[in-house]
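Lecture notes, part 5. Sequence design as translation. It can be helpful to think of inverse folding as translation between two languages: the language of shapes and the language of residues. The source text, in structure tokens, appears below.
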């Protein structure tokens, strides 16, 4: 796709703000959206620099972890609302949805984020392999993703899983409290060993695409601090 955005910071971020239709955004989200959703030719590392520069130039304002566009550029957006062609935006959104389906968005962001951690030499896919048994992984891939109904909320995710042989299954993963609740037979039989059953494969894959940062924090914690986690039966 031939989308033109300016490389000049002020105009660049005005265009991004217009395309995304945002008021404020987390830095990690911004990097993710520019690199992978909009598929603009900027690597996460280059974007970190670009954003840092924009903050020190007063183009972006950082407040409580969120990035805002400065007042002047907001006014320019208002004045020149049609600056960025509507058709361009439509094209981009189609593209965006396609990218969403096909790309694994988390790796390069995660690699930067995990640099300081003990698990740095492992990719997150490798961590999933490390924290689940081979059987659970194999079985996990055979359960259709559509059987999972998952909600994400801050540091927690929860939901249900349709199952042919058992009643609907529940799960909850609370990263803040380091607690996992679930109620399938496998999980309950292996509670004392804190074994992740087949259902967690799809759940991890889901978080991975929806919230790369949460998935990194969650998986690294399960990998390196499993003894601090509690595994419990879901209460109906
Ligand atoms: Zn299970």
């Amino acid at each position: 796709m031939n989308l033109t955005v300016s490389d000049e910071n002020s105009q660049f971020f005005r265009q991004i703000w217009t395309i995304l239709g945002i008021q404020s955004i987390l830095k990690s989200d911004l990097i993710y959206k520019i690199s992978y959703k909009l598929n603009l030719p900027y690597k996460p590392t280059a974007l970190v620099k670009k954003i840092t520069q924009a903050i020190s130039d007063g183009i972006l304002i950082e407040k409580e972890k969120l990035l805002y566009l400065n007042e002047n550029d907001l006014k320019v957006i208002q004045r020149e609302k049609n600056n960025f062609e509507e058709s361009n935006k439509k094209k981009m959104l189609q593209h965006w949805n396609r990218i969403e389906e096909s790309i694994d968005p988390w790796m390069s962001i995660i690699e930067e984020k995990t640099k300081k951690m003990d698990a740095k030499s492992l990719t997150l896919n490798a961590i999933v392999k490390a924290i689940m048994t081979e059987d659970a992984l194999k079985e996990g891939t055979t359960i259709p993703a559509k059987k999972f109904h998952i909600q994400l909320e801050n540091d927690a995710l929860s939901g249900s899983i349709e199952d042919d042989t058992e009643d609907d299954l529940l799960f909850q993963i609370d990263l803040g409290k380091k607690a996992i609740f679930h109620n399938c037979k496998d999980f309950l039989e292996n509670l004392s060993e804190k074994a992740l059953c087949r259902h967690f494969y799809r759940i991890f894959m889901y978080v991975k695409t929806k919230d790369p940062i949460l998935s990194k924090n969650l998986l690294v914690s399960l990998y390196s601090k499993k003894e601090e986690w509690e595994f419990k039966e879901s209460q109906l």
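The translated text above is only one of many valid answers, since several sequences can fold into similar shapes. Confidence is low (pLDDT under 50) at residues 98-121.
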